[in-house]
Design brief:
Largest sheet: 7 strands, parallel
Family: Belongs to the short-chain dehydrogenases/reductases (SDR) family.
Protein name: L-xylulose reductase
Radius of gyration: 21 Å
Strand order of the largest sheet: 3-2-1-4-5-6-7
Number of helices: 9
Structural class: alpha/beta
GO biological process, one term: glucose metabolic process
Keywords: NADP, Oxidoreductase
GO molecular function: carbonyl reductase (NADPH) activity; L-xylulose reductase (NADPH) activity
């Protein structure tokens, strides 16, 4: 009798599992691009490079973008699209919070604003150190506090994406402040994931290798500097801004709704070696 009951229970469980799997396989989902239509996002550091590309990609998917930067004239200017240009110095504690809070509830934030002072360790300056940490690390905290407050008030299950770097974990010469700032971003992201996750807000990092923006092309044009890193990238190339935008868009979308507190390396395999 017990064998019969156990057999019946197993059959019922198998049917349940198969039914669940079948429904999952048959489930129709909208495309990732459709998720962004009519939603709102903030992109800091949108004046150039990765930030400008990310903002452009979001606008192309019919999202409303708050493009944030120090110089309003350098921010994207695309007539007919849902674009709001905002001047904010992300390194300023008070104005960053107040201006981003004024933007109201959004569905996602990309903390992309960043600066790099190239200084050898023994010649690192207070100005270089403070500027780098204020923008790259402290600015992430302050902007995210304002966005999270608005998300919570509006009951939005949102996504925050912080732009970190592979050199948050793999140090390179002449970048002590930058390495420190991005190492801090990794831990800020993990802490945000733990504290904001229960409130429906996901936080993740995108960790690029060298990115060939206009500034990146200049900074890494010397083969003596670039080849040691290139040799450690199995795919044999540095990243393009659209490579980073692809990862950011994935983490902002509901295609990543079970991903929280992770580093997404966009590095061609650099971190595997």
């Amino acid at each position: 009798m017990f064998r019969s009951i156990n057999k019946l229970s197993t059959q019922l469980n198998n049917r349940y599992v198969m039914g669940t799997l079948s429904r999952g396989i048959a489930e129709k989902r909208s495309s990732m691009e459709e998720y962004f239509k009519d939603k709102s996002f903030i992109v800091t550091g949108a004046s150039a490079g990765m930030g400008k590309v990310i903002a452009g990609r979001l606008l192309a998917m019919d999202a409303h973008v708050f493009a944030v930067g120090r110089d309003i004239d350098s921010l994207p200017s695309i007539p007919g699209l849902k674009l709001t240009k905002v001047t904010v110095d992300i390194g300023d504690w008070d104005s960053t919070y107040s201006k981003i809070l004024e933007m109201g509830p959004v569905h996602g934030l990309v903390n992309n604003a960043g600066v790099a002072h190239i200084e050898p360790f023994m010649k690192t300056t207070q100005q270089g150190w403070d500027d780098t940490l204020n923008i790259n690390s402290r600015g992430v905290v302050r902007a995210s506090q304002a966005v999270a407050e608005n998300m919570i008030a509006a009951k939005i299950n949102g996504s925050i994406v912080n732009i970190s770097s592979t050199i948050s974990e793999r140090a390179i010469p002449d970048h002590v402040a930058y390495c420190a700032s991005k190492g801090a971003v990794n831990q800020i992201t993990r802490t945000m994931a733990v504290e904001l996750g229960p409130l429906g807000i996901r936080t993740n990092n995108v960790n690029p290798t060298v990115v060939l923006t206009k500034m990146g092309l200049i900074a890494w044009s010397d083969p003596k500097k670039s080849e040691p890193i290139m040799k450690r990238i199995p795919l044999g190339r540095f990243a393009q801004p659209n490579d980073i935008a692809d990862a950011v868009i994935f983490l902002l979308s509901d295609y990543s709704k079970m991903i929280n507190g992770m580093n997404l390396y966009v590095d061609g395999g650099f971190m595997t070696g």
